[in-house]
Amino acid sequence: MVELSSAPPCATDSLVECALKVLQCPDPWQKAEYTYSTVRMWRDGTIKRVRPVEWRHLRAPDRPARSDDKVRVCAPGEAPRRGKGGSLASRQALLHSAVHIENWAVDLSWDVVARFGLRAHEYELPREFFDDFVTVAEDECRHFTALAKRLEEVGSHYGAFAVHDGLWESAAATAHSLPARLAVEHCVHEARGLDVLPGTVAKFANNGDAESAALLRDVIYPEEISHCAAGVRWIRYLYDVAHGRRPPAPPADADAQVEAEAEAEATPLPAASTNGAAAAAAAAGDADAPGGLSARLRELGVGTSSACGEEGAGGGGGDTTAAATSTASTSPLPPSATTGPAAAAPAAGGGAEEASAAWVADARRHVSVEAWFHSLVRAHFWGGLKPPFNDEARARAGFGPEWYLPLAQPAGGAPAAAAHPEAASGAPAAVEADTAAA
Ligand SMILES: [Fe+2]
Ligand SMILES: [Fe+2]
Protein backbone atom coordinates (compact mmCIF):
# COMPACT_ATOMS: atom_id res chain seq x y z
CA MET A 1 0.00 0.00 0.00
CA VAL A 2 1.20 3.47 -0.78
CA GLU A 3 2.06 5.52 2.27
CA LEU A 4 -0.72 7.99 2.67
CA SER A 5 -0.24 11.57 3.64
CA SER A 6 -2.04 13.06 6.60
CA ALA A 7 -1.56 16.52 5.12
CA PRO A 8 -4.74 18.59 4.83
CA PRO A 9 -7.01 18.02 1.84
CA CYS A 10 -6.23 20.54 -0.88
CA ALA A 11 -7.73 21.97 -4.04
CA THR A 12 -5.81 19.65 -6.37
CA ASP A 13 -7.00 16.50 -4.61
CA SER A 14 -9.75 14.24 -5.86
CA LEU A 15 -12.55 13.29 -3.48
CA VAL A 16 -11.03 9.88 -2.82
CA GLU A 17 -7.65 11.44 -1.99
CA CYS A 18 -9.35 13.78 0.48
CA ALA A 19 -11.20 10.84 2.01
CA LEU A 20 -7.91 8.98 2.41
CA LYS A 21 -6.39 12.00 4.13
CA VAL A 22 -9.25 12.07 6.63
CA LEU A 23 -8.85 8.36 7.24
CA GLN A 24 -5.11 8.74 7.70
CA CYS A 25 -5.47 11.56 10.20
CA PRO A 26 -5.43 10.24 13.80
CA ASP A 27 -6.57 13.33 15.68
CA PRO A 28 -10.39 13.46 15.92
CA TRP A 29 -10.52 17.25 15.83
CA GLN A 30 -8.23 17.47 12.83
CA LYS A 31 -10.27 14.70 11.24
CA ALA A 32 -13.28 16.98 11.66
CA GLU A 33 -11.46 19.95 10.11
CA TYR A 34 -10.40 17.82 7.15
CA THR A 35 -13.97 16.62 6.76
CA TYR A 36 -15.44 20.12 6.74
CA SER A 37 -12.89 21.42 4.23
CA THR A 38 -13.44 18.43 1.94
CA VAL A 39 -17.21 18.89 2.06
CA ARG A 40 -16.83 22.57 1.24
CA MET A 41 -14.49 21.92 -1.71
CA TRP A 42 -16.72 19.14 -3.06
CA ARG A 43 -19.84 21.28 -2.88
CA ASP A 44 -18.31 24.42 -4.43
CA GLY A 45 -16.72 22.49 -7.28
CA THR A 46 -13.10 22.93 -6.22
CA ILE A 47 -12.82 19.14 -6.12
CA LYS A 48 -13.71 18.11 -9.62
CA ARG A 49 -13.15 14.41 -9.70
CA VAL A 50 -13.93 11.41 -7.54
CA ARG A 51 -10.59 9.79 -8.40
CA PRO A 52 -7.34 11.21 -9.72
CA VAL A 53 -6.42 10.25 -13.29
CA GLU A 54 -3.86 7.81 -11.92
CA TRP A 55 -5.47 6.09 -8.98
CA ARG A 56 -4.71 2.40 -9.06
CA HIS A 57 -1.84 2.81 -6.60
CA LEU A 58 -4.28 4.11 -3.98
CA ARG A 59 -5.89 1.91 -1.39
CA ALA A 60 -8.16 2.45 1.59
CA PRO A 61 -6.37 1.64 4.86
CA ASP A 62 -7.16 -1.60 6.66
CA ARG A 63 -7.95 0.53 9.70
CA PRO A 64 -8.18 4.32 9.83
CA ALA A 65 -5.64 6.19 11.93
CA ARG A 66 -7.10 6.78 15.39
CA SER A 67 -6.09 8.52 18.61
CA ASP A 68 -5.64 5.25 20.46
CA ASP A 69 -3.08 6.93 22.71
CA LYS A 70 -5.73 9.39 23.94
CA VAL A 71 -8.86 7.25 23.76
CA ARG A 72 -8.25 3.87 25.33
CA VAL A 73 -9.75 0.98 23.37
CA CYS A 74 -10.96 -2.13 25.19
CA ALA A 75 -12.81 -5.31 24.24
CA PRO A 76 -16.57 -4.81 23.69
CA GLY A 77 -17.44 -6.68 26.88
CA GLU A 78 -15.05 -4.56 28.95
CA ALA A 79 -16.46 -1.14 28.11
CA PRO A 80 -17.75 0.66 31.23
CA ARG A 81 -21.45 0.45 31.96
CA ARG A 82 -23.30 3.59 31.03
CA GLY A 83 -26.28 3.28 33.31
CA LYS A 84 -29.67 4.93 32.95
CA GLY A 85 -28.66 8.56 33.18
CA GLY A 86 -29.61 8.96 36.82
CA SER A 87 -26.22 10.33 37.82
CA LEU A 88 -23.86 12.80 36.25
CA ALA A 89 -21.29 10.04 35.77
CA SER A 90 -23.87 7.96 33.91
CA ARG A 91 -24.86 10.86 31.66
CA GLN A 92 -21.19 11.56 30.95
CA ALA A 93 -20.68 7.90 30.05
CA LEU A 94 -23.71 7.96 27.76
CA LEU A 95 -22.49 11.08 25.99
CA HIS A 96 -18.96 9.71 25.75
CA SER A 97 -20.18 6.55 24.09
CA ALA A 98 -22.19 8.62 21.60
CA VAL A 99 -19.17 10.83 20.84
CA HIS A 100 -17.07 7.77 20.12
CA ILE A 101 -19.70 6.23 17.86
CA GLU A 102 -20.00 9.48 15.92
CA ASN A 103 -16.24 9.72 15.57
CA TRP A 104 -16.21 6.24 14.09
CA ALA A 105 -19.15 7.19 11.88
CA VAL A 106 -17.00 9.94 10.32
CA ASP A 107 -14.37 7.38 9.39
CA LEU A 108 -16.97 4.90 8.19
CA SER A 109 -18.49 7.46 5.83
CA TRP A 110 -15.14 8.32 4.28
CA ASP A 111 -14.22 4.67 4.11
CA VAL A 112 -17.24 4.06 1.87
CA VAL A 113 -16.17 6.94 -0.38
CA ALA A 114 -12.55 5.82 -0.60
CA ARG A 115 -12.88 2.04 -0.59
CA PHE A 116 -15.73 1.72 -3.04
CA GLY A 117 -14.78 4.83 -5.00
CA LEU A 118 -11.56 2.99 -5.82
CA ARG A 119 -13.59 0.02 -7.05
CA ALA A 120 -14.88 1.99 -10.02
CA HIS A 121 -14.50 -0.99 -12.29
CA GLU A 122 -16.80 -3.12 -10.21
CA TYR A 123 -19.53 -0.70 -9.16
CA GLU A 124 -19.49 2.27 -11.58
CA LEU A 125 -20.96 4.48 -8.92
CA PRO A 126 -22.48 7.74 -10.08
CA ARG A 127 -21.70 11.15 -8.67
CA GLU A 128 -24.97 11.11 -6.70
CA PHE A 129 -23.65 8.22 -4.62
CA PHE A 130 -20.68 10.31 -3.55
CA ASP A 131 -22.91 13.33 -2.91
CA ASP A 132 -24.91 11.20 -0.49
CA PHE A 133 -21.94 9.90 1.45
CA VAL A 134 -20.23 13.28 1.58
CA THR A 135 -23.42 14.53 3.23
CA VAL A 136 -23.41 11.60 5.62
CA ALA A 137 -19.79 12.36 6.53
CA GLU A 138 -20.63 16.00 7.14
CA ASP A 139 -23.59 15.05 9.36
CA GLU A 140 -21.52 12.59 11.38
CA CYS A 141 -18.82 15.18 11.83
CA ARG A 142 -21.38 17.70 13.08
CA HIS A 143 -22.75 15.08 15.48
CA PHE A 144 -19.26 14.35 16.76
CA THR A 145 -18.30 17.97 17.37
CA ALA A 146 -21.65 18.90 18.93
CA LEU A 147 -21.70 15.90 21.27
CA ALA A 148 -18.03 16.33 22.19
CA LYS A 149 -18.74 19.97 23.06
CA ARG A 150 -21.73 18.91 25.15
CA LEU A 151 -19.61 16.28 26.90
CA GLU A 152 -17.16 19.00 27.93
CA GLU A 153 -20.02 21.21 29.11
CA VAL A 154 -21.05 18.48 31.55
CA GLY A 155 -17.53 18.21 32.91
CA SER A 156 -15.91 15.41 30.92
CA HIS A 157 -14.01 15.01 27.65
CA TYR A 158 -13.49 12.57 24.79
CA GLY A 159 -10.97 10.05 26.08
CA ALA A 160 -12.21 10.05 29.68
CA PHE A 161 -13.75 6.58 29.32
CA ALA A 162 -12.55 3.37 27.70
CA VAL A 163 -14.29 2.55 24.43
CA HIS A 164 -14.69 -0.39 22.09
CA ASP A 165 -14.36 -0.42 18.33
CA GLY A 166 -17.05 -2.91 17.41
CA LEU A 167 -18.36 -0.68 14.64
CA TRP A 168 -15.09 -0.94 12.76
CA GLU A 169 -15.01 -4.71 13.22
CA SER A 170 -18.24 -4.98 11.27
CA ALA A 171 -16.94 -2.52 8.68
CA ALA A 172 -13.86 -4.70 8.20
CA ALA A 173 -16.11 -7.75 7.78
CA THR A 174 -17.87 -6.00 4.88
CA ALA A 175 -14.83 -4.35 3.27
CA HIS A 176 -15.10 -6.64 0.25
CA SER A 177 -18.67 -5.76 -0.70
CA LEU A 178 -20.55 -2.50 -1.04
CA PRO A 179 -23.99 -4.16 -0.78
CA ALA A 180 -22.90 -5.94 2.40
CA ARG A 181 -21.49 -2.70 3.81
CA LEU A 182 -24.69 -0.80 3.08
CA ALA A 183 -26.82 -3.56 4.56
CA VAL A 184 -24.87 -4.05 7.77
CA GLU A 185 -23.63 -0.56 8.62
CA HIS A 186 -26.55 1.50 7.43
CA CYS A 187 -29.56 -0.80 7.59
CA VAL A 188 -28.59 -2.80 10.68
CA HIS A 189 -26.34 -0.69 12.90
CA GLU A 190 -27.69 2.75 12.05
CA ALA A 191 -31.24 1.39 12.10
CA ARG A 192 -30.51 -0.07 15.54
CA GLY A 193 -29.45 3.43 16.53
CA LEU A 194 -32.89 4.66 15.52
CA ASP A 195 -34.49 1.96 17.68
CA VAL A 196 -32.61 2.93 20.83
CA LEU A 197 -32.24 6.67 20.40
CA PRO A 198 -35.66 7.65 21.80
CA GLY A 199 -34.81 5.73 24.96
CA THR A 200 -31.49 7.51 25.22
CA VAL A 201 -33.21 10.87 24.79
CA ALA A 202 -35.52 9.95 27.65
CA LYS A 203 -32.57 9.12 29.91
CA PHE A 204 -31.37 12.70 29.55
CA ALA A 205 -34.78 14.38 29.56
CA ASN A 206 -35.94 12.48 32.65
CA ASN A 207 -32.81 13.40 34.56
CA GLY A 208 -32.69 17.14 34.02
CA ASP A 209 -30.40 17.34 30.99
CA ALA A 210 -32.77 18.92 28.48
CA GLU A 211 -29.90 20.24 26.38
CA SER A 212 -28.39 16.85 25.61
CA ALA A 213 -31.88 15.45 25.03
CA ALA A 214 -32.65 18.23 22.53
CA LEU A 215 -29.38 17.70 20.67
CA LEU A 216 -30.05 14.01 20.26
CA ARG A 217 -33.74 14.41 19.44
CA ASP A 218 -33.77 17.50 17.23
CA VAL A 219 -30.43 17.38 15.41
CA ILE A 220 -29.06 13.87 15.40
CA TYR A 221 -32.18 11.71 15.19
CA PRO A 222 -33.60 13.11 11.91
CA GLU A 223 -30.20 13.03 10.25
CA GLU A 224 -29.64 9.44 11.27
CA ILE A 225 -32.90 8.56 9.54
CA SER A 226 -31.46 10.07 6.37
CA HIS A 227 -28.34 7.90 6.74
CA CYS A 228 -30.41 4.73 6.91
CA ALA A 229 -32.33 6.04 3.92
CA ALA A 230 -29.07 6.38 1.98
CA GLY A 231 -28.24 2.75 2.69
CA VAL A 232 -31.68 1.59 1.58
CA ARG A 233 -31.61 3.82 -1.52
CA TRP A 234 -28.30 2.48 -2.79
CA ILE A 235 -29.10 -1.17 -2.04
CA ARG A 236 -32.26 -0.70 -4.09
CA TYR A 237 -30.26 0.98 -6.83
CA LEU A 238 -27.72 -1.85 -7.05
CA TYR A 239 -30.51 -4.44 -7.01
CA ASP A 240 -32.45 -2.68 -9.75
CA VAL A 241 -29.34 -2.27 -11.92
CA ALA A 242 -28.49 -5.95 -11.52
CA HIS A 243 -32.00 -6.92 -12.59
CA GLY A 244 -32.15 -4.47 -15.50
CA ARG A 245 -34.97 -2.54 -13.88
CA ARG A 246 -33.13 0.70 -14.34
CA PRO A 247 -30.08 1.62 -16.38
CA PRO A 248 -26.93 2.33 -14.42
CA ALA A 249 -26.56 6.06 -13.84
CA PRO A 250 -23.59 7.65 -15.63
CA PRO A 251 -20.51 6.78 -13.59
CA ALA A 252 -18.61 9.52 -11.83
CA ASP A 253 -15.51 10.70 -13.70
CA ALA A 254 -16.93 9.41 -17.00
CA ASP A 255 -15.10 12.28 -18.68
CA ALA A 256 -11.82 10.72 -17.57
CA GLN A 257 -12.53 7.68 -19.68
CA VAL A 258 -13.12 9.77 -22.78
CA GLU A 259 -9.94 11.76 -22.22
CA ALA A 260 -7.86 8.67 -21.57
CA GLU A 261 -9.15 6.88 -24.63
CA ALA A 262 -8.45 9.91 -26.83
CA GLU A 263 -4.95 10.13 -25.44
CA ALA A 264 -4.36 6.43 -25.98
CA GLU A 265 -5.52 6.65 -29.59
CA ALA A 266 -3.23 9.60 -30.23
CA THR A 267 -0.22 7.70 -28.90
CA PRO A 268 -0.69 4.02 -29.77
CA LEU A 269 1.30 1.58 -27.69
CA PRO A 270 3.68 -0.95 -29.29
CA ALA A 271 1.92 -4.05 -30.59
CA ALA A 272 3.48 -6.26 -27.94
CA SER A 273 2.17 -4.03 -25.23
CA THR A 274 -1.30 -3.85 -23.74
CA ASN A 275 -4.02 -2.70 -26.06
CA GLY A 276 -4.16 1.09 -25.90
CA ALA A 277 -7.87 1.42 -25.45
CA ALA A 278 -7.90 -1.27 -22.80
CA ALA A 279 -5.07 0.44 -20.93
CA ALA A 280 -6.86 3.73 -21.11
CA ALA A 281 -10.03 2.07 -19.97
CA ALA A 282 -8.24 0.53 -17.03
CA ALA A 283 -6.72 3.87 -16.09
CA ALA A 284 -10.14 5.46 -16.16
CA GLY A 285 -11.87 2.63 -14.34
CA ASP A 286 -13.69 1.64 -17.51
CA ALA A 287 -16.63 -0.61 -16.84
CA ASP A 288 -16.41 -2.13 -20.30
CA ALA A 289 -13.01 -3.60 -19.48
CA PRO A 290 -13.25 -7.37 -18.89
CA GLY A 291 -15.06 -8.06 -15.64
CA GLY A 292 -16.44 -4.51 -15.29
CA LEU A 293 -20.04 -3.79 -14.44
CA SER A 294 -21.27 -3.00 -17.95
CA ALA A 295 -19.51 -6.03 -19.40
CA ARG A 296 -20.97 -8.17 -16.64
CA LEU A 297 -24.50 -6.90 -17.28
CA ARG A 298 -24.15 -7.63 -21.00
CA GLU A 299 -22.80 -11.08 -20.22
CA LEU A 300 -25.90 -11.75 -18.15
CA GLY A 301 -28.21 -10.40 -20.81
CA VAL A 302 -29.25 -7.42 -18.72
CA GLY A 303 -30.06 -4.40 -20.85
CA THR A 304 -28.29 -1.18 -19.98
CA SER A 305 -30.21 1.02 -22.37
CA SER A 306 -32.95 3.42 -21.45
CA ALA A 307 -35.46 0.77 -22.48
CA CYS A 308 -35.16 -0.43 -18.91
CA GLY A 309 -36.89 1.29 -16.00
CA GLU A 310 -36.24 5.01 -16.18
CA GLU A 311 -35.57 5.80 -12.57
CA GLY A 312 -32.17 7.21 -13.36
CA ALA A 313 -29.63 7.80 -10.62
CA GLY A 314 -30.03 6.39 -7.18
CA GLY A 315 -32.21 9.19 -5.96
CA GLY A 316 -35.50 7.51 -6.84
CA GLY A 317 -35.37 4.93 -4.18
CA GLY A 318 -38.76 3.51 -3.72
CA ASP A 319 -40.68 1.87 -6.50
CA THR A 320 -39.11 -1.40 -7.43
CA THR A 321 -42.24 -2.57 -9.16
CA ALA A 322 -42.23 0.14 -11.80
CA ALA A 323 -40.30 -1.94 -14.29
CA ALA A 324 -41.19 -5.36 -13.07
CA THR A 325 -41.80 -6.51 -16.60
CA SER A 326 -38.08 -6.81 -17.15
CA THR A 327 -37.24 -10.32 -18.34
CA ALA A 328 -34.19 -10.34 -16.11
CA SER A 329 -36.23 -9.51 -13.05
CA THR A 330 -38.36 -12.58 -13.48
CA SER A 331 -35.53 -14.89 -14.43
CA PRO A 332 -32.94 -14.97 -11.69
CA LEU A 333 -29.89 -17.00 -12.53
CA PRO A 334 -29.84 -20.62 -11.49
CA PRO A 335 -27.71 -21.25 -8.41
CA SER A 336 -24.98 -22.83 -10.51
CA ALA A 337 -24.45 -19.59 -12.37
CA THR A 338 -24.17 -17.39 -9.33
CA THR A 339 -21.60 -16.31 -6.88
CA GLY A 340 -22.51 -15.85 -3.25
CA PRO A 341 -21.30 -13.05 -1.04
CA ALA A 342 -18.32 -14.91 0.31
CA ALA A 343 -17.11 -15.89 -3.15
CA ALA A 344 -17.73 -12.35 -4.32
CA ALA A 345 -14.91 -11.03 -2.20
CA PRO A 346 -12.15 -9.42 -4.23
CA ALA A 347 -9.09 -7.86 -2.72
CA ALA A 348 -10.21 -5.04 -0.46
CA GLY A 349 -9.20 -1.60 -1.57
CA GLY A 350 -9.50 -1.96 -5.33
CA GLY A 351 -6.75 -1.74 -7.89
CA ALA A 352 -5.91 -3.78 -10.96
CA GLU A 353 -6.75 -7.02 -9.19
CA GLU A 354 -10.43 -6.18 -8.93
CA ALA A 355 -12.74 -9.10 -9.36
CA SER A 356 -15.62 -9.11 -11.75
CA ALA A 357 -18.86 -7.51 -10.64
CA ALA A 358 -19.90 -10.69 -8.84
CA TRP A 359 -22.42 -8.77 -6.77
CA VAL A 360 -24.59 -8.58 -9.88
CA ALA A 361 -25.01 -12.33 -10.01
CA ASP A 362 -25.60 -12.44 -6.28
CA ALA A 363 -28.35 -9.82 -6.50
CA ARG A 364 -29.96 -11.76 -9.35
CA ARG A 365 -30.28 -14.86 -7.19
CA HIS A 366 -32.96 -13.09 -5.20
CA VAL A 367 -36.52 -12.39 -6.27
CA SER A 368 -36.80 -9.17 -4.28
CA VAL A 369 -34.52 -6.54 -2.84
CA GLU A 370 -35.73 -7.52 0.62
CA ALA A 371 -34.67 -11.14 0.02
CA TRP A 372 -31.22 -9.93 -1.10
CA PHE A 373 -30.97 -7.79 2.01
CA HIS A 374 -31.83 -10.77 4.22
CA SER A 375 -29.12 -12.80 2.52
CA LEU A 376 -26.53 -10.05 2.96
CA VAL A 377 -27.32 -9.59 6.63
CA ARG A 378 -27.35 -13.30 7.38
CA ALA A 379 -23.98 -13.67 5.70
CA HIS A 380 -22.28 -10.72 7.37
CA PHE A 381 -24.03 -10.03 10.65
CA TRP A 382 -24.35 -12.70 13.24
CA GLY A 383 -26.93 -12.50 15.92
CA GLY A 384 -30.28 -11.50 14.51
CA LEU A 385 -31.86 -8.09 14.90
CA LYS A 386 -33.02 -7.08 18.33
CA PRO A 387 -36.61 -5.92 18.80
CA PRO A 388 -38.42 -3.73 19.58
CA PHE A 389 -38.04 -1.84 16.33
CA ASN A 390 -38.73 1.83 15.73
CA ASP A 391 -41.17 1.16 12.91
CA GLU A 392 -41.99 4.83 12.40
CA ALA A 393 -38.36 5.93 11.96
CA ARG A 394 -37.55 2.91 9.82
CA ALA A 395 -40.54 3.67 7.58
CA ARG A 396 -39.27 7.24 7.18
CA ALA A 397 -35.91 5.76 6.14
CA GLY A 398 -37.68 3.83 3.40
CA PHE A 399 -37.79 0.30 4.70
CA GLY A 400 -40.75 -1.47 6.18
CA PRO A 401 -41.08 -4.54 8.41
CA GLU A 402 -40.65 -6.87 5.44
CA TRP A 403 -36.98 -5.85 5.51
CA TYR A 404 -36.21 -6.47 9.17
CA LEU A 405 -38.85 -8.68 10.81
CA PRO A 406 -37.63 -11.87 9.08
CA LEU A 407 -34.22 -11.18 10.64
CA ALA A 408 -35.49 -10.50 14.14
CA GLN A 409 -34.36 -12.50 17.11
CA PRO A 410 -37.16 -14.62 18.51
CA ALA A 411 -38.35 -13.05 21.75
CA GLY A 412 -35.94 -14.20 24.44
CA GLY A 413 -34.57 -16.86 22.12
CA ALA A 414 -31.53 -17.72 20.11
CA PRO A 415 -30.32 -15.48 17.28
CA ALA A 416 -32.21 -15.98 14.05
CA ALA A 417 -29.08 -16.13 11.93
CA ALA A 418 -26.95 -18.26 14.22
CA ALA A 419 -26.85 -21.16 11.81
CA HIS A 420 -24.95 -19.28 9.12
CA PRO A 421 -21.67 -21.03 8.38
CA GLU A 422 -19.63 -17.85 8.83
CA ALA A 423 -20.92 -17.65 12.38
CA ALA A 424 -18.74 -20.57 13.37
CA SER A 425 -15.59 -18.73 12.34
CA GLY A 426 -16.66 -15.58 14.10
CA ALA A 427 -16.13 -13.62 10.91
CA PRO A 428 -19.25 -11.45 10.97
CA ALA A 429 -19.16 -9.00 13.80
CA ALA A 430 -22.08 -9.09 16.19
CA VAL A 431 -21.91 -5.62 17.62
CA GLU A 432 -24.55 -3.13 18.46
CA ALA A 433 -24.75 0.59 18.09
CA ASP A 434 -26.71 0.48 21.31
CA THR A 435 -26.25 3.94 22.70
CA ALA A 436 -27.18 6.38 19.99
CA ALA A 437 -27.35 6.43 16.27
CA ALA A 438 -24.08 6.51 14.44
FE1 LIG B 1 -25.29 8.13 10.87
FE1 LIG C 1 -24.36 10.41 13.58
From TrEMBL:
Positions of the UniProt region annotated as Disordered: 247-270, 305-349, 411-438
Record field: compositional bias (Low complexity): 320-349
Residue runs in coiled coils: none
One Pfam family cited in the UniProt record for this chain: DUF455
Signal peptide: none
InterPro entries from the UniProt entry: DUF455 (IPR007402), Ferritin-like_SF (IPR009078)
Protein's name according to its UniProt entry: Uncharacterized protein
Organism: Astrephomene gubernaculifera
